[in-house]
Design goal:
about 240 residues, alpha/beta, eight-stranded parallel sheet, 8 strands
């Protein structure tokens, strides 16, 4: 099965640079005949309709569970609908730990976007102190992060992102990814991505981990050449 690669731009790229990125990526993927699913999550200000030849899907990094209303600073279904956006990231660790989203709110958001038929990339992952507390603590933490989440939803893609590996350059070892993915696979049979300092130098090893269906990439995805290189690795290793 083709791997799923997803690029999370976080608070990077403008409307103009996002368009240039997607055009360059599309040209590469189209020329190489790449058939895998590729997701791009630009910042909200760069959401748009992009006509692409390759299978590039645009998603929102975040939105409020509403059609529209009084939620200052947020966007809702009306704003996403303008650009035909039907994919959203929910539960990213930066929204949990920096923006303070609770599991109850995340579950509410998940249920609402599920109701709208969105593809949901749902992120879970433990902070360092939980990892250091041992395997049982990690398992309990991940189970708690699935509380209130329909893990059988057919348009769910899970992403395991250990917080200590995000943006730190410290990647989980293939053994640890395999072991943790096995725990998560017992909670859901949906595709499961790994995220946390994935880059061109390590993506082959990560995609080769049993139970790893792809990668959610932050930092190393922001440069289109780097993203193309990771997609080429995914494609080469499928053959
Ligand atoms: O959504 C992506 C993850 O937070 C990983 O970010 P990173 O590749 O910069 O570690």
């Amino acid at each position: 099965m083709s791997k799923i690669l997803a690029a999370n731009f976080k608070t990077n790229h403008t409307r103009a640079s996002t368009r240039a990125y997607i055009e360059a990526l599309d040209a590469h993927l189209d020329a190489s005949g790449y058939k895998g699913e590729t997701y791009i999550f630009p910042p909200a200000t760069a959401l748009d309709r992009f006509e692409t030849k390759a299978d590039i899907r645009i998603g929102a990094q975040n939105a409020y569970p509403t059609v529209k209303g009084s939620f200052t600073g947020e966007i809702g279904l009306e704003q996403l609908g303008e650009f035909g956006i039907g994919t959203i990231l929910v539960g990213h660790s930066e929204r949990r730990h920096i923006l303070g989203e609770s599991q109850a709110f995340i579950a509410q958001k998940y249920a609402w976007f599920k109701e709208q038929g969105f593809t949901i990339v749902y992120c879970i992952g433990e902070p360092l102190e939980v990892r250091e507390a041992g395997d049982d603590a990690v398992r309990r933490y991940l189970v708690d992060q699935c509380e209130g989440i329909d893990t059988a939803y057919e348009k769910l893609i899970l992403a395991y992102e250990p917080v200590w590996a995000i943006g730190t350059g410290r990647t989980a070892t293939p053994e640890l990814i395999e072991q943790t993915h096995a725990v998560i696979k017992r909670l859901s049979d949906r595709p499961l991505l790994y995220g946390g300092s994935v880059k061109p130098q390590n993506i082959a090893d990560i995609l080769a981990v049993p139970g790893c269906d792809g990668a959610l990439i932050g930092t190393a995805s922001w440069d289109v050449e780097s993203m193309v290189s990771m997609l080429e690795t995914a494609m080469r290793d499928e053959k």
